[in-house]
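Let us practice reading a record.
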Amino acid sequence: MPRTYKEAGVDIEKGEKTIQNIKEMVLSTHNKNVLNGLGGFSSFYEIPKGYQNPVIVSGTDGVGTKLKIAIETGILDSVGIDLVAMCVNDIITCGAKPLFFLDYLATGKLSEKEFSNIISGIVQGCELAGISLVGGETAEMPGMYLKNDFDLAGFASGIIEKKDIIDGSMLKEGDVIYALTSSGLHSNGYSLVRYVIEKDMGISLNELYKRYPDLLNMIMRPTVIYSKKIQSLMKKIDINTMAHITGGGIKGNLERVIPESLDVHIERSSLPKLEIYKILANYIDEEEMYKVFNMGAGYIIGISENDCRRIEDDKDLIRIGKVKNGNGKVEYV
C-alpha cells in the first residue's frame, strides 16, 4: 500500500491552511521598508534612509523551559511576546533601532488553534517593539517531539550608525546606574522555578491553572520589551552602557558591558520588590536567586551624573548603583 506524508504525521495541506490563517495578522506588522509579503524563499527589508555608515545588528534567542509551563497550562499567547522580547532586548543594548523579526517553531503535531495563539503573541510582541514580522519557519516533526510539545526560536535584526554604537567603553567613574523594572521572572530560571513548584510546593503544573491562578499569572507574565523606552531615552540623554538582565542575573550580565578598569556597586535595597521573588525566597537561597534571576531589574543603563537631572521625573527609572574604579566587577552593597 502506497504511503503518504500525512500518514507519517506531517499534514502539508493543514500546514498551508494554517499559514494562510495567520497571514493577515503578520502583514499588519509590515511597514514600507518590507518589500515582499509571505510565502517567498526569503524576506526583503530596505535599509531606512538617513544613515551614513549603517551597521546591521542581529541576535537570536528562545523562551527556555517557560514553554513547559505554557504547554501544561495552555497559556500560549504570552510566550510569543517573550520570544520577541528576549531577542529585541538583546540587540538594543548597543543602541540599535530594531527593524524586523523572524521566528522558528518546531512541533510534534501542528495544532491550528495553538499555532494561531503563539503567532498572535509574536505579532503583539512585534507591535510592542515597533518591528516587522517578515517571515518564519514552522516544522512539523513527529518523533522528535511529543504530541503537544513544541520549541520556539526567534531572530531579530536592527540598525545603528557605526559611530553611535554603545559598547560600554564610554562608562567612567562617577556614572550612575539605573534600572527599568521587570514584570517578574521574564524568561529565565524556569527550570529552577518548576523544580520549586513541583518538589517544594508540591504543586503539579496542571494544578497551577486550576488552584493557583494568581501564582500562575505572576509566573507567566510576559517579558517587558524595552525598545521604545530606550529609543525615547536616547533622545534625551547619552547612555554609556546598557545590559539586558537575563540568566546570570545583574552581575553576570552587567559585567559583560563594563570596562576592566571599573566596578559597579549595586544597592540591593534599591531594587524593586516584586511579589514573585518574595515567594521564591522561601525556597531558594538569596545568593542563588541573584545569580539566576533579574531580581526586579529587567534592563540596566549607565549614564553620566550630569544627565540624571534630565530624567529625574521619569518614574520608569530606578537609581540602583554607582560606577567606581575597580576590576570590571559588579558588587552588591
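A brief commentary: The CA atoms of residues 203 and 211 lie 9 Å apart.
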